[in-house]
Structures are given as structure tokens and as C-alpha cells.
Amino acid sequence: MAIEVFYGTAIPRDLATAGLEYVWTKWRTLAGTGGLSVQRLTEESDPALRDHFHYLLPVGDDFAYVYVGRTLVDSIKPGTGGTVLTRNDNDFAKDFAKDFAEVYRRVVRDMAPAFVRFTGPRAGPGTIWQQVAMPVPLTADTTLVVCYSELVNHQLEIYEHLFRTARDAIAIACPITNDAGHVTDGWVLMMNDRAREYLKFDGPIGNLRLRDLEAFNGIAFWGRIYAPRNAVTSGIVSAQDLEIEILRFPHVFGLRLRPSSAASPPLAPDATPTGYVAAK
């Protein structure tokens, strides 16, 4: 497990989420006004945020998990959310107590929060955990560590960047069909930079249909609406000076564009793209 820790008075701005920043700011405000308590910090927060909290109580030189919120428990063991866990009866708690003990000891010692980022075998591809650990005094001798954690997924921004900057010119459309289930047009959902270059289009894609683009307005038939389950099928269509490879997914279809090597007529209305197999 990789751990990155920030000690200080603020979460790094480029790493903060709305939830983390809200909880951090609330702790600082309550601590500064003398009104800090577990109830005011957690129970008076939005219910969706409360599910991301867990509490740790110092036990000698270690910590015991006295509560873990529903969202966190379900991310480790689906279907068991909302239960009370301790370090000795859950692998999740054992792993975290071992790796985070020094961080939590410093939080208690300095009476100041820490911002932690970490990865582990339970985090999916493109995801990372982010946590703020905050000290909350219970008595003159006992401090509870209240942690707020979120699993942040960076897959979408990675995929969007790779799609937008891809060398292949690609557009993605949602099918528009006739009564027979034939795709006669499509709402444009995505278009990368290279596709915009090929299509000479630099406007917004909201409410944009394929036939609104000059290169496609002579094509009246794109195939059938569905591809075989869990399959991608393709066909080739020609339009003006472009060769279009149709990528058929279960709910949308993609168009990979290439300069045409030889002019050829658009696909006939009663034809099916080469290599495309309709769902059965």
C-alpha cells in the first residue's frame, strides 16, 4: 500500500474534493470557536457525507475502529454496511491500523488534521483513496480520531483525454431509428480533435445530428440498432472523401474516419455494412 501524507492547515487545492474540503473547513471552524464535538462534526453533516466517516479510539500505542460508515464498509465488503468494526475482527481494519498508526498518533499528538492519499489492492483501476484525519477531544485525556474518506476515480478524465487526443479520428453517436429498427441517423455524443479536423467542424455538439454534418448528410442507413451482446462489430461506409468504419456497441455506435483511398458511393438503403452482424 502506498501512502502520501500532508500535514498542515489546508488540503492541497488541486487534490481537494468538495466533500473533503467541506469537512476540513468545518473542523477548523468548530475547533476555532470552541464548539468541536463528534456530534457537531459528523451528525450535523449531510447524510451522504456521514456514510464516509469512521472513528478510531487510541488503545495504548495502537487504535481501535469503533465505527465505520456504510459507504466505506460496502466498498470493502458489499452488503455489510453500517456495522461496527474493530481492528481485531476485520482485515480492512487490520491493514489500515498497521499502515496508518503513525499518522493517527501524530494527529493526536499535534491536535491537528492530516490529509492522506493511498492506494491498495482493494482500489480499482484508476482509483485512489483520499482521507482527512481530524482529532476530536472526548475528555482531557482522550482524543478520538475522526476520518472522512473518499474513493476518487480518475478513469473518466484519463479516458476522455486519451479519446480526445487519439491519432484516430473518432465520433460517437446514439442511434436514431425507424420503425424497422434501422439506424437512419444519430445524435452526436462525442467527437475527438482529429475527427473535428476531418469533418471541418469546431462548434458545440449539443443537439447535433450526423446528417447535420456535411460529410454524412448523404448517408440514409447506418445498420441495425443493436450489436451482439458483449461484442463490437464493424462495417465500412464511404462518404465524400472519407472512409468510415462503423464500430457497433450495445447502445451506441462509433465512426472511425480515414481519408478515402478511392471514391465510392454511399451505402445503399437496403444494404448492411460489410462485417456487421445483427443481434439475434
Overview of the structural elements:
It is a single chain. The chain is 25% helix and 31% strand. It is α+β, with helices and mostly antiparallel strands. A hairpin with a 2-residue loop joins β10 (233-239) and β11 (242-248). The two termini are 46 Å apart. The relative contact order is 0.10. Residues 78-93 and 263-280 have low confidence and may be disordered.
In short:
By secondary structure, this protein is of the alpha+beta class.
Low-confidence stretches: 78-93, 263-280
Average pLDDT figure? 79
**Alpha carbon gyration radius:** 27 Å
Order of helices and strands: EHHHEEHHEEEHEEHEEEE
- Report strand order across the widest sheet: 1-4-5-6-2-3
Provide the helix percentage. Answer: 25-40%
The N- and C-terminal alpha carbons lie at a distance of: 46 Å
Strand-pairing-aware structural class: alpha+beta
* Net shape: elongated
User: How many alpha or pi helices?
Assistant: 7
Map the helices and strands.
Elements: E1 3-7, H1 18-33, H2 38-43, H3 47-50, E2 53-59, E3 62-68, H4 70-76, H5 91-110, E4 114-118, E5 127-137, E6 143-153, H6 155-164, E7 169-177, E8 182-191, H7 193-199, E9 223-224, E10 233-239, E11 242-248, E12 253-259
Antiparallel strand pairs: 1-4, 2-3, 2-6, 4-5, 5-6, 7-8, 7-12, 8-9, 10-11, 11-12
Question: Top keywords for this entry?
Answer:
280 residues, alpha+beta, 6-stranded antiparallel sheet
